[in-house]
Specification:
The complex is a heterodimer of chains A (383) and B (586). With 383 residues, chain A is mostly helical. Helices cover 67% and strands 4% of the residues of chain A. The chains are: A mainly alpha (383), B alpha+beta (586).
Chain lengths: 383, 586
């Protein structure tokens, strides 16, 4: 009893060093891989092999600062800005249509705010905070059909805007996926989710069946062609299957131990923009199956830490924030690797911390900051 | 501030979520294992296909050697100069250097250098010294590749027999084309790794598939005989102002050809230079005309051109007559200087007539009316039968491309007049090689041989890899007829029209011929002589054909001395050759 009392007098707060280590390692590893994949192209295009590395390192440094700052802010403050965040996300997405918007690779997805930012990244963060707050506000009513539908319906306007305005299906799927996962955790239901899952699976297979039937009719848009290319990338080698096929060449030619760091052939212009979404295939080529599995294990470790923190969060709001971040990471990592290995049709999803992209890294680091902030609320003896 | 408790149900759900993620990761890891272990070989091969660029390494073409192993066609190292656009650092310097070293126009070099392509060939067949000099500049993006060019050390010797090779080292005419499969070898490749734009990556090692050199072809030609025959042919062409002279020397027993001369020859090392005109006027010719002129220059008259054999064909008529028993040596004839066949009066070359003569003397005198008589005694069907039996209707199948077929009357349209003219070698055409082969068969005891150059294929270290065998057809005439023919033809040389072919101390048989070319009355003649020695068992047979000589045009006057001079020199040489170890090896 005495012991217990002394502890309570000096409460030690939890700081998750494992999580921090994994995050910093992935960030550092990401920079190494960006240099490895982009230096050849960068030296040809910009006459500076470190062109992409420098930009990404700047974003990463900014991200670390943001993470430290956010981790020191008590997370309950964000509750007050939850609805505001939701509205601002919507406005920012709409701003893409104004002259502030910037196009790249034929898609208008960026906002020029001094720094080039994807509003979809902000919307992900905003959605996590908004839903966590919403669930807490709904309280027990979540058990009712109405409460369930409110929470499921909340992300739909933002998703629709991301899809319709910025033509970014993958981000819309990610945002909706995060919402579903958060709802799954907050609702006591299982059956409904299983039904939703089955219905989704049926819809997807039905859609694929329809698309294969329509193949060659010319009525398919680029998404339909992507699905055909996914089923048989070699038949679409010069079109929609090109990137996937090049990624598969990279992965397959890596073998068990890889060609060694920096030895990739596919990054020499064969796999276009190897530093972006397809970077994982170059990791496979250079570091082999061992390197690839090691990266997957690191992401597992990251998600495991999220789970521990979520389970020990002092309240539901904190737990749901972490669940949202967990969902975000899990969905992006799983979908990215699935795309790269041609397990699912090609869609542009970046690999957290590793793919090139400044705003992505910045907002991911802010999310880590949020998680660390929630972790600070855990009293040590509760772990 | 809302404080909702983080309930057990939420914790359970979070763990479920984590486990679901773990499942997804496990599935992806499994997928990776499948791709990187099971499919690894497949994708590695595909990726290498994509990364590798192939460059050919030319195989050294096989040599051609004569029967004494003297090399008459070989290779010399030449360089190909190319530029790699993406690697060039200072294009002006490169252009200036290439213009200076290669002697090309600046415009042409600039076009090559500034063309955006993976690799651009600037000039091939550059000699090795120039290539070495260009390499010594060490300019980035300039590539000097060595390969082989065909080289003929004896230049124009036997040019129409040997033939030459094209830009890809492939045979174009002559033996080079006929024995392509043995001579060409197999090109190797250099595999280099490149990036997506085709730029070679210096750090990546090169994979080489070594080329396989072509095999050596040994031919029956004897360089000494060929050289001497060429000298004789050139000499007679000059003194007689002839259009061309062909000399063919072969072994009548087995068909091996020792020499085949067709002057004027051409320079094998510059086969596209027309001999008959300077290069300036040649360049002004329209392409088609120039190509025709070149084809004419490369033509092997012994094989590709036909001629009326004239009196030398009486050998065949005589053999047929003897074989069919319509004539014997002792038969006597009377020549009034002409013979009337149907409504035609065919004259003898001796217009006053030879008077009474036996068959031997009729041949020695080359008396036309006698041979017309024999032809008529044989009749169209019989004559045609022997024509066919002696192999005159088919090609000789000599191992050279472009052999011309015999031009002969259709037996259905052959009247007595045609028969009469054929009997003394007119109104039809055969090739010189056909003539030599048929006479060989008649004097060698009756075996139709296949004339040929190719003897054997030698591999590395002159190891024998293949010996060529040629068809023979026995008994096209009986041994007795053959013996009689040898006797008659020896008499022709000793005491008859062929006496200018006589060689002191040797037994030579032969027959002269003088034929007027078509159209008749043009005053153009072909003088020829076919001779063989020794007359009792011939080991060498030669035919000399002089095309359109000026002045004296009788075969006995101008062609027979050529064969005599040839025999005077080569017969002692061939005897000595028989004793040499080279021949024992044969």
């Amino acid at each position: 009893m005495t012991r217990r009392r002394t502890r309570r007098k000096k409460p030690e707060y939890f700081f998750d060093f494992t999580l921090l280590f994994v995050v910093l390692f992935l960030l550092g590893f990401g920079l190494v891989m960006i240099y490895s994949t982009s230096s050849y192209e960068a030296s040809l295009t910009y006459n500076d092999p470190a062109y992409y590395l420098k930009k990404q390192a700047f974003a990463a440094a900014l991200g670390i600062v943001a993470m430290v700052v956010v981790s020191h802010i008590p997370y309950h403050i964000w509750e007050r800005f939850a609805f505001l965040g939701y509205i601002v996300s919507g406005i920012l997405i709409a701003l893409v249509l104004t002259p502030l918007g910037r196009s790249s690779h034929g898609a208008r997805r960026w906002l020029n705010l001094g720094l080039s930012v994807q509003p979809a990244e902000i919307a992900k963060l905003g959605m996590i905070i908004f839903l966590a707050s919403l669930v807490c506000n709904v309280g027990k009513a979540i058990k009712s059909k109405k409460g369930f539908m409110i929470i499921l319906g909340a992300p739909i306007p933002i998703c629709a805007m991301v899809y319709l305005i910025t033509d970014n299906l993958s981000s819309a799927i990610i945002i909706f996926g995060i919402a579903v996962l958060m709802l799954f955790v907050s609702s006591p239901e299982y059956k409904k989710f299983i039904l939703i899952g089955l219905a989704g699976a049926a819809a997807v297979s039905g859609g694929i069946f329809l698309i294969t039937k329509l193949a060659g009719s010319g009525k398919l848009g680029f998404r339909g062609e992507r699905i055909l290319a996914w089923l048989n990338p070699e038949a679409y080698a010069s079109g929609k299957g090109f990137q996937t096929l090049q990624a598969l060449y990279a992965i397959g030619s890596g073998g068990i131990f890889g060609k060694g760091l920096g030895q990739s052939m596919q990054k020499l212009g064969f796999l276009p923009e190897a530093q972006n979404d397809m970077i994982f295939s170059i990791i496979c080529e250079e570091l082999g199956l061992f390197g690839a599995i090691a990266i997957i294990l690191l992401f597992m470790l990251l998600i495991w830490r999220f789970m521990i923190i979520a389970n020990n969060a002092p309240d539901l709001f904190g737990a749901l924030l972490v669940v949202g971040v967990l969902g975000h990471f899990a969905i992006q990592v799983i979908l990215n690797i699935a795309v790269v290995t041609n397990t699912i049709p090609n869609t542009g999803i970046s690999l957290p911390f590793i793919s090139y992209g400044g705003s992505s890294v910045l907002f991911l680091m802010i999310e880590i900051g949020l998680v660390l902030s929630v972790a600070r609320g855990i009293k040590f003896n509760e772990v | 501030m809302l404080i909702n408790r983080n309930k057990t149900i939420h914790r359970k759900k979070i763990v479920t979520l984590f486990l679901a993620c773990a499942c997804c990761f496990a599935i992806l890891a499994g997928r990776l294992c499948y791709l990187m272990i099971v499919c690894s070989d497949y994708y590695t091969a595909k990726a290498e296909d994509l990364h590798e660029r192939e460059r050919d390494i030319k195989a050294a073409r096989g040599k051609i050697v004569d029967c004494n192993n003297t090399v008459i066609a070989t290779n010399k190292t030449v360089c190909t100069i190319s530029v790699i656009h993406s690697q060039i650092e200072d294009s002006e310097k490169v252009i200036h250097m290439l213009v200076q070293e290669l002697g090309l126009s600046e415009e042409k070099v600039r076009k090559r250098v500034e063309k955006v392509s993976a690799i651009e060939r600037v000039k091939s067949n550059v000699d090795k010294q120039t290539g070495d000099r260009i390499r010594a500049y060490e300019y980035a993006g300039v590539k000097v590749d060595e390969d082989y060019k065909r080289y003929y050390p004896y230049e124009s010797l036997a040019s129409k027999v040997l033939g030459f090779t094209g830009s890809d080292n492939q045979g174009i005419v002559g033996l080079e084309v006929k024995y392509e499969e043995y001579l060409k070898g197999q090109n190797g490749t250099i595999l280099t790794m490149t990036d997506a734009k085709g730029v070679e990556i210096p750090s990546a090692g090169e994979d080489r598939i070594e080329p396989i050199s072509g095999k050596t072809l040994q031919i029956s030609m004897d360089l000494n005989i060929q050289t001497y025959a060429t000298q004789l042919a050139e000499q007679v062409m000059e003194t007689k102002h002839a259009d061309s002279v062909s000399i063919l020397v072969m072994n009548p027993q087995n068909g091996e050809i020792y020499a085949m001369v067709n002057v004027p020859e051409f320079d094998l090392n510059n086969p596209y230079d027309l001999q008959t005109m300077d290069s300036v006027s040649a360049n002004q010719l329209p392409d088609k005309e120039k190509q025709d002129a070149l084809n004419q220059m490369w033509r092997n008259a012994c094989i590709c051109d036909t001629y009326e054999p004239g009196s030398a064909f009486k050998i065949i008529t005589a053999a047929a007559g003897l074989e069919e028993n319509v004539v014997s040596l002792e038969d006597t004839f009377s020549c009034p200087g002409f013979i009337v066949v149907e409504d035609r009066r065919i004259r003898c070359h001796k217009t006053t007539g030879h008077g009474s003569e036996d068959f031997l003397h009729a041949t020695m005198n080359s008396c036309n009316p006698v041979f017309v008589t024999i032809g008529l005694r044989l009749g169209v069907d019989n004559f045609y039968k022997y024509f066919k039996q002696f192999g005159l209707l088919q090609k000789t199948n000599v191992d050279l491309p472009g052999e011309a077929a015999t031009i002969m009357h259709n037996p259905k349209n052959m009247g007595l007049v045609e028969l009469a003219t054929v009997a003394f070698g007119q109104s039809f055409q055969i090739t010189p090689i056909q003539m030599a082969t048929t006479v060989s068969s008649i004097v060698n005891g009756g075996t139709r041989v296949t004339p040929h150059f190719g003897v054997r294929i030698l591999g590395e270290g002159d190891k024998r890899e293949k010996v060529f065998h040629y068809e023979e057809e026995k008994n096209i005439v009986s041994a007795e007829t053959s013996e009689t023919m040898r006797y008659i033809l020896e008499q022709v040389v000793e005491n008859g029209t062929g006496k200018n072919g006589y060689v002191e101390g040797q037994r030579v048989g032969g027959k002269t011929a003088t034929s007027q070319t078509l159209p008749r009355g043009s005053g153009k003649y072909i003088a020829s002589f076919v001779g063989f020695a020794p007359a009792d068992n011939p080991s060498v047979l030669a035919i000399a054909i002089i095309n359109n000589p000026s002045g004296v045009y009788y075969g006995g006057q101008i062609a027979a001395p050529v064969v005599r001079q040839l025999f005077e020199n080569i017969l002692p040489y061939m005897e000595s050759r028989q004793d040499s170890p080279v021949t024992i090896q044969r």
